[in-house]
Design goal:
5-stranded antiparallel beta sheet, activator, 9 helices, 37% helix, 269 residues, transcription, 6-stranded antiparallel beta sheet
C-alpha cells in the first residue's frame, strides 16, 4: 500500500503525473502536493535534488550519518544521490520538489540541510509543486523555479539534525536514550550499560558525531521535543517527557539551540 494519498483539495483524476517519475521529468523543477500516511519508507535515492516541505505535521529524514526533524516551519534539502529514508508518525501534508542538479549546483558535501521557510518561499514552493511538468524555458513557471533556487541558496539553515556515531557501543547509548527520552542517568551509568567506559564514549561522540556527549544528548532531547510541540503538546509536559526538571530549564535550552522560544519558533515561518 502506498504511503501517499492525493491532496483532497485536488482532483486526483486530473493529475497527469500521479504515476510519473520526477527524476526524468522534462522541466528542471517539478513537484507534487501529497498527504503521507504514518509509515517509514526504506532507504532510497533520487537522481534529482529534493526539497521537502511539511505544510502540516512532522517529517523525519534519516541517512547513514544522521537524522533530521522537519516541522511545518522548515524545509529539508536532500542532495541528488543521497540515500535516505523517511518516517512520519501521524498524517503529514507535504509538498515535494525535484530539482535537476544542472539547474542548481549545490556542493555535493551538502547532503541534507534544513532551511527556514519564509512566507515568500512557502508560496513559491506551493506554486512549483502545482506547476505542470513540461513548461518551456521562458515561461512564468521557469521564472518561478529560478526564484526558488535563489531562495534555497539564500535562506538560513536551521540546526535540526542529529548526527549519529558509528561505533556499536555509542550507538547502544543512543538507542537507550531514544527508548527512554526522560533518562537522566550520567554518562558513567550509560557507559556501563553499553559495555564501555565514560571516557571512551565521550571520545567516540566527539570524534564520530562532532560534539560532546552532553551536547548530543541535549540535541536529541530538543529534537524529540520539537516534534511533540509541533503536535500541540504543552511546553511543561514536553519538558518533563524529555528529561528536563522544569519548563524554564527546557525553554532556556531550546532558546540556546534555536535562538528563540518554542512559541516564537513555530510562528517564525
Amino acid at each position: 500500500m502506498s504511503r501517499r494519498s492525493a491532496d483532497p483539495a485536488a482532483n486526483p483524476a486530473a493529475d497527469p503525473h500521479a504515476d510519473a517519475d520526477p527524476d526524468v521529468a522534462p522541466a528542471p523543477v517539478v513537484g507534487r502536493t501529497e498527504i503521507w500516511q504514518p509509515t517509514e519508507q526504506p532507504p532510497h535515492v533520487h537522481r534529482r535534488h529534493q526539497l521537502l516541505c511539511a505544510t502540516r505535521g512532522v517529517l523525519h529524514v534519516m541517512t547513514a550519518v544522521g537524522e533530521w526533524v522537519l516541522p511545518s516551519t522548515r524545509a529539508i534539502w536532500i542532495s541528488a544521490g543521497t540515500e535516505h529514508a523517511t518516517r512520519v508518525r501521524r498524517p503529514c501534508h507535504t509538498q515535494v520538489l525535484y530539482i535537476d542538479p544542472a539547474a542548481c549546483d549545490m556542493p555535493r558535501e551538502t547532503y541534507c540541510l534544513v532551511l527556514g521557510v519564509s512566507a515568500l518561499m512557502r508560496e513559491v514552493v506551493h506554486a512549483c509543486a502545482e506547476a505542470r511538468w513540461d513548461y518551456p524555458a521562458n515561461s512564468p513557471e521557469a521564472r518561478l523555479a529560478a526564484v526558488l533556487i535563489d531562495q534555497v541558496r539564500a535562506v538560513p539553515q536551521s540546526p535540526v539534525d542529529l548526527p549519529f556515531p558509528n561505533d556499536a557501543r555509542a550507538l547502544r547509548v543512543a538507542e537507550i536514550l531514544r527508548r527512554e527520552p526522560a533518562n537522566r542517568e550520567p554518562l558513567a551509568a550509560l557507559a556501563a550499560r553499553a559495555g564501555a567506559s565514560a571516557r571512551t564514549l565521550e571520545r567516540l561522540f566527539r570524534a564520530q558525531a562532532g560534539m560532546s556527549f552532553g551536547a548530543w544528548r541535549q540535541r536529541q532531547r530538543l529534537l524529540l521535543a520539537l516534534e511533540q510541540l509541533a503536535y500541540g503538546e504543552s511546553v511543561t509536559n514536553v519538558a518533563l517527557e524529555v528529561g528536563y526538571e522544569s519548563a524554564s530549564s527546557f525553554v532556556a535550552a531550546f532558546k540556546a539551540m534555536f535562538g528563540t522560544t518554542p512559541a516564537r519558533y513555530f510562528r517564525s515561518a
